[in-house]
Amino acid sequence: MKNKYRWLMVICIIPFLWLGGCVTESQTEGKEKQVKVSAEESNSQSEQNEDTAKNNNGTFGAEGNADIKVTLLGTGSPVLSMDRFGSATLVEAGDERLLFDVGRGAALRLDQIDIAPGMIDKLFVTHLHHDHTVGFADLLITAAVPDPRGNREGDFKVWGPKGTENMVNSTIQAFEVDIQTRKKVEGATGLDAEVNEVEEGVVYESNGVEVIAFNVDHGLMKPALGYRINYNEHSVVISGDTTYTENLIKYAKGTDLLIQEVVVVKGPEEEYQSEAHKNIEAYHTTPEQAGEIFNEVNPKLAVYTHIATFLPEHEATIVDRTKEIYDGKVVLGEDLMTIEIGDEVKIRD
């Protein structure tokens, strides 16, 4: 009788042992699959990191079919704003990385797109108002801070209108103690500048990239320049600060991208609140004037920068006012907006 019960117990236990083995085997297979997936994800992430590193250190502008990449680092004006830093635009074409203007916070915005100050060694200045140049000292000297992403090896090369050399030399003199200390203590490089004061015409050519300076009308601020950058049969034009001028239209004709300054000091039917507002508008471009410029230039895309408004931005209705005159593609620029120029002109998400 006892033997009978023992066999019954064995028969009952065997299925549980078999099920336990199945569960263990399933869990093991699950773990093996999980490890395999994790390894694949890790390899994929490593490949992405390698691609990112290559992008930062190799061919700057080439992403997909893009020949030129433009990043709006600062789309603001002298008006203080945490959303819109001072005027600065980065143009990457082929192996060239060119900065146009260096307003308030330019070095910070560069850092946000993973570009160290020392990775910038070419600056083109449109004019000498402080909102386009106040970030120069920061960009020059912060390059001395050791950064694994890159440090400036040679001189900081600067192009700009007459007066640029005085601005650069005065800045270096003002920070002379700091600069000399960093050279001695840290062995810092890239803290000297080579300045080229330029007039209208081709001012830079290298690696297939051509930069053309042209005169614009910025009132009493003379000279003031705009720039056209040509590469691989594509182009971008930076208006600089200007009112409506035929010379801007002349040099911007046929461009893929026109980066245009704009000002709004009042509503279309309102009176000027002061003589100062009237004078400010006189040497900048209103949305209506910009619409006329766009009609003449006919860019594939027009993007506003240096957005100076003396009323709340949503009340300025800049794009709507432009659209009353111009029916092409126009957008209000934002800090860190990136535009890619190739077979198409696209704003990258």
Question: What's this, in brief?
Answer:
With 349 residues, this protein is α/β, with parallel strands linked by helices.
Describe the fold and architecture.
There is one protein chain. By secondary structure, the chain is of the alpha/beta class. 37% of the residues lie in helices and 24% in strands. It has helices at residues 2-57, 106-112, 136-142, 164-174, 176-186, 246-252, 275-282, 287-297, 313-316, 318-323, and strands spanning 68-74, 88-93, 96-100, 122-124, 156-160, 193-197, 201-206, 209-215, 225-231, 234-238, 257-264, 301-309, 330-332, 337-341, 345-348. It has an eight-stranded mixed beta sheet with strand order 6-5-4-3-2-1-14-15. Strands 7-8-9-10-11-12-13 form a seven-stranded mixed beta sheet. The longest helix is centred in the first third of the chain and has 56 residues, at 2-57. The N and C termini lie far apart (80 Å).
Widest beta sheet: strand line-up? 6-5-4-3-2-1-14-15
Q: State the total count of DSSP E strands.
A: 15
Order of helices and strands: HEEEHEHEHHEEEEEHEHHEHHEEE
Largest sheet: 8 strands, mixed
Going by CATH, the architecture of the largest domain would be 4-Layer Sandwich
What's the CATH H-level homologous superfamily of the largest domain?
Answer: Ribonuclease Z/Hydroxyacylglutathione hydrolase-like
Domain count: 2
Provide the low-confidence segments as ranges.
Answer: 1-62
- What portion of residues belong to β-strands? 15-25%
Number of helices: 10
Estimated helix fraction: 25-40%
Overall 3D geometry? globular
Rounded mean pLDDT is 86
Q: Report the CATH C-level class of the largest domain.
A: Alpha Beta
In CATH terms, what is the fold-level topology of the largest domain?
Answer: Metallo-beta-lactamase, Chain A
Oligomer: single chain
Structural class of the secondary structure composition? alpha/beta
Using only CA atoms, what is the Rg?
Answer: 29 Å
Distance between the termini: 80 Å
